[in-house]
Each structure stands twice: as structure tokens, then as C-alpha cells.
């Protein structure tokens, strides 16, 4: 971090320029994950801003999960693996009143693509976890709909985990507040006798991932997502 240079800022929204400057420095590898930044007095002098402006920028960066500010340890750049979601995104989706259909279409696109990727990239460890989730689903097929919905959520998250795509996994974790609500609603409207079909489709997705058949995994997941997709399309009319 010895060669890092942050330019002085002159703007009504100076704190945003500070945020963007630090993010650009991270993106351009001028600042590395885990690096300790300059002290507050050094940063205020370097940026030619007041301490309240700098602290406003640091609060935004903390909210985004980019830095950790500690009285004793100073300002440190976080590592991406220290967080498992992109929380600011969920706040914006809730603020914008994202529709149920839009949410499901996003989830559907990710799940279908990640099922295919999972068949190529899954590890034996991740595959074993997926198998255990299906076993639990079978055992709780007649349980309360909220329990069944939670296991349904676990299955879909684990498929993404099997893909090895960390960004998609974090995105799905970020959407979990809205997704879980949607899954509970879907299962609530699903007759108990039809739950066997859900578990059966889960098994087919699992088997195609286990056997490393990407196209089959994609097709099976697409078929699995079709019924709830029709449900939300009809509901949005």
C-alpha cells in the first residue's frame, strides 16, 4: 500500500468520492484485502476534507462491508470471504418493491444455470451435503409447510454451492429474506400429496449432478422451476 495516492476531493458529496476512490484503489490492486489504511488525521490531510466528512465515508464503507473501523486497530480493508451476502442489495430491492415475478425470474435464471455448473464442478463433499438434504426432505414430507419450505430452500442453496460460483452463492444468500417468504407461500399453496413430486424432482436434479450430466441437470432444474413460475406469472396478471 506504500504507493497509494488518493486525490483531494471538492464536492457537495465529498464522502461519496472518498468511497469511490477507495473502491477504485481496491479494484486496481493499489490496496489489498487485509491492508490497514492510513489513520484518520492522515486521510483528512491527504484528501483535504473535514473529519466529519471522512467519518461519513467510513460509515458507508462499513455498511457496505468494505472496511472495519476499530479505535485500537484503525481502518482495515475486509476480505471478501468475511461476508456471505451483499446486504445493501436486499435493502434496495425491498425499497424498490421488487415484484414477486421479477424475484422469481431472477432466482429461476440463477438456479437453472447453476444446476448445469454444479454437474461440472461439484465436489464429493458438497454432493454429500446435497444428498443429506434430500434425505431430510423425504423424512419431513408430511411436516408443517414452513419446515418443508426451509428444506426446499436448503436444497436450492446447496445446488448453487455445488456450482463453485461464489458470487452466485452470495447473491442467493442476499436474496434469502425475499426468497424464503416466496418459498413458504409456494409450499403453503401446494397440496401435501404434491410434495412427493417436488422431492422427486429434487432427486432427479441431484442424480444428474452426481452423474455429472450438465445438460440433464439444467433440464431437470428447469422442469422443477416451471410450476412455481406459472404460479407467479398467473398471480401477476
From TrEMBL:
Residues 12-80 form the HTH gntR-type domain. Keywords: DNA-binding, Transcription, Transcription regulation. GO terms for molecular function: DNA binding; DNA-binding transcription factor activity. InterPro entries: GntR_C, TF_FadR/GntR_C, Tscrpt_reg_HTH_GntR, WH-like_DNA-bd_sf, WH_DNA-bd_sf. Coiled coil: none annotated. The keyword Ion transport does not apply. The keyword Protease does not apply. Residues 211-229 have a biased composition (Basic and acidic residues). Residues 211-237 are annotated as: Disordered. SMART domains: FCD (SM00895), HTH_GNTR (SM00345). Transmembrane segments: none annotated. It holds the Pfam family FCD. This is HTH-type transcriptional regulator LutR. It comes from bioreactor metagenome. The gene is lutR_22.
Amino acid at each position: 500500500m506504500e504507493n497509494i495516492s488518493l486525490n483531494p476531493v471538492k464536492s457537495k458529496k465529498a464522502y461519496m468520492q472518498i468511497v469511490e476512490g477507495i473502491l477504485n484503489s481496491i479494484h486496481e490492486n493499489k490496496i489489498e484485502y487485509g491492508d490497514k489504511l492510513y489513520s484518520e488525521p492522515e486521510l483528512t490531510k491527504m484528501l483535504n476534507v473535514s473529519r466529519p466528512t471522512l467519518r461519513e465515508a467510513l460509515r458507508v464503507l462499513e455498511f457496505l462491508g468494505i472496511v472495519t473501523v476499530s479505535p485500537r486497530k484503525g481502518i482495515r480493508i475486509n476480505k471478501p470471504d468475511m461476508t456471505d451476502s451483499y446486504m445493501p442489495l436486499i435493502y434496495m430491492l425491498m425499497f424498490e418493491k421488487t415484484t414477486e415475478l421479477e424475484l422469481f425470474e431472477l432466482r429461476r435464471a440463477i438456479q437453472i444455470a447453476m444446476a448445469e455448473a454444479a454437474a461440472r464442478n461439484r465436489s464429493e463433499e458438497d454432493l454429500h451435503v446435497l444428498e443429506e438434504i434430500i434425505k431430510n426432505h423425504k423424512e419431513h414430507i408430511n411436516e408443517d409447510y414452513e419446515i418443508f419450505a426451509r428444506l426446499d430452500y436448503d436444497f436450492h442453496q446447496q445446488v448453487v454451492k455445488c456450482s463453485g460460483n461464489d458470487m452466485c452463492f452470495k447473491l442467493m444468500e442476499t436474496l434469502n429474506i425475499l426468497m424464503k417468504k416466496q418459498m413458504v407461500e409456494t409450499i403453503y399453496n401446494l397440496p401435501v400429496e404434491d410434495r412427493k413430486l417436488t422431492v422427486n424432482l429434487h432427486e432427479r436434479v441431484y442424480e444428474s449432478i452426481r452423474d455429472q450430466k450438465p445438460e440433464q441437470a439444467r433440464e431437470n432444474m428447469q422442469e422443477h422451476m416451471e410450476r412455481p413460475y406459472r404460479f407467479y406469472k398467473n398471480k401477476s396478471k
